[in-house]
User: What shape does this take?
Amino acid sequence: MSAVRPDPDALLARVQREEAKAKRGKLKVFFGATAGVGKTYAMLEDARALKARGVDVVVGYVEPHGRAETEALLEGLERLPYRHIAYRGAALRDFDLDAALARKPQILLVDELAHSNPLEGEPRPRHAKRWQDVEELLEAGITVHTTVNVQHVESLNDIVAGITGVRMQETVPDSVFERADEVVMIDTPPDVLLERLQAGKVYIPEQARNAIENFFRKGNLIALRELALRTTADRVDAAMREYREGQGIRATWAAGERLLVAIGPDEQGERLVRAGKRMATALHADWIVVYVETPELLRLSDEKRNRRIALLRLAESLGAEAVTLGGSSAGAEIANYAQERNVTRIVIGRPRRPLWRRLFQPSTYGELVAGTKGIDILVVGGGDEASALRNPFLARSRAYLGAAHPGTKRRWPGYAWGVAATALWTGLGALISPHFELVNIAMVYLLAVVLVAVRFGRGPAIATSFLALAAFDFFFVPPLLSFAVSDVQYLITFAIMLTVALIISNLTASVRLQANVAGQRERRTAMLYAMTRELAATRGQEPMARAAVRHVSEVFESQAVVLFPDAAGRIRHPRGASTPGSLRGADLAVAQWVQDHGEPAGLGTDTLPSAESVYLPLKGSQAVLGVLAVLPANVRRVLLPEQFHLLETFAGQIAIALERALLAEQAQRAQVEAETEGLRNALLASISHDLRTPLAVISGASSSLVERGERLGADERKALAASIFEQSQQMGGLVGNVLEMTRLEAGAIALNRDWHSMSEIAGSVLRRLQDRLESHLVEVDLPMELPLVRVDAALIEQVLANLLENAAKHTPPGTRITLRVDQQDDSLLVSVEDAGPGLPAGDPEQLFAKFHRGNTEGAVAGVGLGLAICRAIVRLHGGRIWAETRAEGGAAFRFTLPVEPAPRVPREA
Assistant: This one.
């Protein structure tokens, strides 16, 4: 054995797989060739042994089929109660998934993994298949032991049908079987099994006789036993391969394989998909199922087009990558795609085109042989597929799609226009025939064929070709008004004209159909881009949801709604007004399941497929943000694999936009919280700094009065009392500024506007600040013709007082302070100028920020709120405030107040 260093990427992938497995429960499958081999018996024996070792084992559902041995093994094991379901007038017992999730044992026994749940029963089950119930149990961390027969494995279904003549309606996807942690092969020789049947240990005697004569023939049992053993051997080989890769043991093959299965809408499609699955499993290869929409296939009936949907979905359920291509030639498109994807083998069906058509148009096989190099082409033959029973997946899809009711598109207008165009061009030819040769008139008819083909397609164009040829012969070729031909040369002209007309009509119609398909795809891409762009420019959860609903409803011709969870995680209907395209009455129970599990559900999925709408989770990076519910008018717009993937892409873009908005809100809240915390710290720092001095002065003066008051003179006691009063006034101003700023930011101040004169406001402020301004020379410049202003006088007085006090604090005594008011076009400009040292370095706008002080280390008291209060008040009045350095030295603080037309005062009589 030659060992090499393990591939780091493979090792990382293995670790990730093991981490994911550690969170899930384990699945143990007791596997057999057919019923009666002892799978349930072996599962119960194993359960009893585990229980004896102290393991918590519970029987979820076991069907004893009246076998005494099975009933005996059930004794002593805890059993969950059955779920009783009313189904078509009968009472059924079934597995209770919710009871199992609530009990949550270490190991749960669930018999018959392929069983179908009664979707039409009441209460309605959550999943269509029992294997889906088991998947939910595994996701919940519950280990499950179950049983499966080989005929129930999806990819082997047609092989078993070929052996036994019976097509099983209940199947398990290969992916579920392949992900099983342990498979126990229960093998019983055919002779022993037949003896058990005859002894009545498998079925009751009457059923046993029928079974032996039909399904349980010895040849069938031998073949099924071999198939089960080969399937088990493949699992062993896969386990060995995984071990070799994990341990870095050099593989024995040189390169990997990639398989491409080309399917069409005929009966071979299902057989090709299953054959491709088996080949891919045997080769350990990735595989792709490709369907090419040629112009010919675009005209198929609804039933055949719906069958194509079912085939692609079947391929995806078996683990394939389903792809739909478009082009004029299926062979050429498949060859190009195979080379792009590095495909090693192409699997196609047996050619069924008649020989005479292959003479004029090569078959897909021929095109692939000519267009590929180094790729193996495998042709799969088969019997009469039409006589076989259809897969329930296909039958269910036909029921969804309403294939029994083909479309009723009206086609006669195209043929009517063909007749009209022929008549019109005949009239035109009659007008020009005296002046032009007959060959030119023939060109006129070819133009008519081209126009009809462009507008109405191939059928009307072919009919127009024959009509044009007949009209040309009857009206223009001698002898006139007769279909007789006098010159044999005209027969050659007719043949060439008809051939050219047919070729032109065919090519034009093909180009038209391809252009329509390309246009539709381009439209969807453009709509996805448009939605992404609009969501990027939209703010808020609800506006984003409305934009998403509008785009999804337009692209998929459906009704849609985005459902969000409330604070408790429960999905709720939107509360706002509905918009065009909104889905009303979405099933909240289905949406809640999607929200909780993060998986699609509803129409066309494996979970609650009987729902009318499809529900997709809007997955963010951390959690599911909501659910997108879509009710299509035409279910083909959703069930086609490429359409479903497009819908998932839309859901992904919506989720990204919602998460971006959520993160933006969180970032904004974090920023606000950070700023609030910063302001709180600044406030505490400022108050602690600026209150310390007044408190120290008050404390010292008051202690002097208490301790030495009797020994102090009257002037000294008066001075101490005055200092206490002055410092308390200063403290009151500081606290008042803080409270005023809080009220302004909270919007708690309502303006009490009235008409006032700026001279009265200025005079009131100067009288109030007379003591504080006595050390400065105050100059007032107020023109007499100033108009009245409609303001809250108390607040404007506070602005002027703050600006004048600020100028007095930051300028030396004896300097000039000027209060000036000027009239502008539609406002008054109020300025407070000083002759001090000017503004500090930096952006003047920072002076109006809360808790900003021009000189943080200065002796001037204050918390830095005065100018911030001024700005808030001025903005409330619709003005603006700013600071600037004067050219002649000093600083100037200016603000504007809007001027409104003053009311007319009636004259006295």
About this structure: The two ends are 123 Å apart (CA to CA). Residues 43 and 818 are 101 Å apart (CA to CA). The longest helix spans residues 641-708. Residues 250-255, 384-408, 856-860 have pLDDT under 50 and may be disordered.
